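Following the same procedure, sequence and fold were stored together, as reproduced here.

>
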Amino acid sequence: MRADAFLEAAEALPVGSLRDLVPAGGIVVVAPHPDDESLGCGGLIAEACTRRIPVRLVVVSDGIGSHPNSKTHPPERLRDLRESETLAAAECLGLSPDHVAFLRLPDRFVPAAGPEAEAAAEAVAAAARTCDAGALFVTWEHDPHCDHAASAALARRARDLLGDASLYAYPVWGWTLPPETEIGEAPRGVRLAISRHRRAKAAAIAAHRSQTTDLIADDPEGFRLEPAMLAHFARDHEIFLDVAR
């Protein structure tokens, strides 16, 4: 199935509730970078927190690849900034900083296999056990970013370690795939209605100021989320794709 047809079908998935996705237990959101959690799962996190369903957020990479040439924000300072932005975003969504973990794997070089990947998968599984998680949520394996694909792989491994948890994928950069890209079978999953959390989600995304504003202005190669990209995440629903075993 082509990417354009797949994503169109994903936009037409049935609307469901959080408990349609996770009948029991808490949830773990796995974000390759600081900000992916707000973009792809901001509404999910806010809905879970509103319903007092336990949430754990695991941020995989250190996020320092967004502005590699900045003199004002060398790697350690940029890492600390992006982590503080993530904690501010979590607060916007109702999530306690105590429930956010940073693995600090190298941005742009998150391993999909090997000892570091195994340790990351074990960290995700450990977070899941602290909230009796019924489901994990991670970026889509077809997102055209190596860290997103690697995070999807380590989340699959974490599911194997847990044994009985469900796994769902949320597209982030998948919306930018060339239309003719072959994806595979038609999507299965749920569209989660998040209209009542749109304001909180927008605030969470805006909390990532290094990615949405000119806060870091001295790197001509610095990354910034463009309005066209942000528009995908300002909708009344979030898409969660069922990841088969």
Residues 3-242 form a domain with the Rossmann fold fold (CATH 3.40.50.10320). The chain has one domain: 3-242. The chain has a mean pLDDT of 97.
